[in-house]
Amino acid sequence: LLILNKLSLTKFDKLSDAFIDTGVGKNEECLSGAIKLIVKKAQDEPHFAAMYAALCYKLSRTPFDFEHDSKKKKKFKKMLLTECQKEFEQDTETKIANAIEGIEDEEEKALTMAIIKKHYLGHMRFIGELYKGDLI
Question: pTM, whole model, 2 decimals?
């Protein structure tokens, strides 16, 4: 997560290699966790959606320790698609209703609603970038 926080367009090559070298591909669970982190970061920072999509492209081209056959790219793409689909299928209105439940302050409610909507729009932008990179 620390490397993802430092990731920027100018340091992309160096830090994306460092991210891959941390062992995100040592097993399926680690890779799944890395995908979840990347999707969350892309939602939080929609202006960097292209950069996170490029990181996913780089990960899709990286051979992982737990993959022994020629389906390595398909495995990563399938895991990425599953995570994106899971996030996409969550109803925004339900998420907002659950998030603002119990909040009395109208200003805080508005802020929470805006954050959830921003995450949704960031996710759409990330999906678009993934599509442009032929990852989904």
Answer: 0.85
